[in-house]
Amino acid sequence: MQRSLCFAYTSLLNIAGFGFLFAAYWAGWLIPLFRDDNTYITYVMAVVFAIGLVITWVKSWYMSRDKVFSCKTIHGVDHQSYLSRKFDAYLARPKLFSDKLVQLGLCGTALGFIIAMSHIDAGALKDSSTSVAAVASLMNELGGALGKTVVGWFLSMWLTEAVEILDARAFTIIEDEVSA
Description:
The chain is an all-alpha fold. Helices cover 84% and strands 0% of the residues.
């Protein structure tokens, strides 16, 4: 029973996450983040997230089937520390993808601010009739820049929670191996 909980929890988390994405799409928040992205970093974040999510999902399926390395046959080895190191290495890649999403989001924000500031025409701000349009354009660009941070944060949070489920399952497997 407990073996399949890792896969079930990961699947429930993914259903909830895709539900939030669908709600954001339905509300009209998702398309502008991709459409107005001059740096294409939102697309990069989506690809990094998809790869990380697939890796995490496969690892959760693999761990739910107890197809993990056992060290019972290795003599003279501290089983608990060996398995802890083994699972740390096993979960390193999904954690890396999660961390990179936050970094990409912050990079997208910085690039968005640079692009927004580079589009400001100092001469347009002197004239009151054109300054309103320049400020509106600046606000639109800054909103897109901050949207990249939110995308990176949300996707990283989603992937981090999936990794935490795997980490909890790894801890259970280590406890079972050591106590047996």
